[in-house]
Specification:
mainly beta; Pseudouridine synthase; 3 helices; 10 strands
């Protein structure tokens, strides 16, 4: 993808009265970065949906990491933005978030489902990484449940495709740091200990994480999975 032209890959997946969902490509930031002028989902919204220009971050309700693709929720007015942000934060409303991730290795024989409840905290201001603990303050707790969809390869080169549902408020790097803590970093996620992907046959050029499904107000929106899934 040409990072100078993200409009070629950003698309509206679903539009309702008070919100819409767009497909974010991997390699494009959700919002503008300080001191940088590259295109973002926010700038795409301001250019293509000028009616959202007065809203903070052009109505984006949440963000995805640079290398994460998939569903991004956008509010169309301020009351909807506040309501949906509360829903994402677990303070009311019902939003369901399901991701696809490809992780290194394979799980123990006959283990097809699992879950984790962990504490995610920033190491220090400006740190790119989060620290994971088995216990922590309530506001740091993140919960996921997952199931295996398929396994590829064998031995040290094996990878596993998992479907992951975030339960309650999401935490920064929850899926990435959580699976690394469990011994299965996401394929391509060097920050959390994944092996380098040095060949053209690698399943992805970034991190294998995709915001696959988003259910808002009882409406299910799905973003088509990338090739690695």
């Amino acid at each position: 993808m040409n990072p100078q032209a993200p409009d070629a890959d950003i698309a509206v997946l679903r539009e309702e009265l008070s919100w819409l969902v767009v497909a974010k490509p991997a390699g494009v930031h959700s919002v503008a970065q300080q001191g940088k002028s590259e295109p973002t989902v926010e700038s795409w919204l301001r250019a293509n949906r000028p009616e959202l220009g007065a809203l903070d971050e052009a109505g984006l309700v949440h963000r995805l990491d640079l290398d994460t693709s998939g569903c991004l929720l956008v509010a169309k007015d301020e009351p909807a933005r506040l309501r949906l942000r509360d829903a994402f934060s677990g303070r009311g409303g019902d939003v369901r978030k399901t991701y696809l991730a490809r992780v290194e290795g394979r799980f123990a024989e006959r283990v097809l489902t699992g879950a984790f409840t962990l504490s995610f905290t920033s190491r220090h201001k400006g740190s790119a990484k989060v620290t994971v603990h088995t216990r922590g303050e309530p506001e740091s707790i993140g919960r996921c449940r997952w199931r295996v969809r398929s396994v590829s390869g064998s031995g040290p080169a094996a990878t596993t495709l998992v479907e992951v549902e975030l339960l309650g408020p999401g935490r920064r790097h929850q899926i990435r740091a959580g699976f690394a803590h469990e011994g299965h970093p996401l394929v391509g996620d060097r920050l959390y200990g994944a092996e380098p992907m040095g060949t053209d046959d690698s399943p992805a050029k970034g991190i294998c994480l995709h915001a696959w499904r988003l259910e808002v107000d009882g409406v299910l929106v799905e973003c088509p999975p990338p090739a690695w899934a």
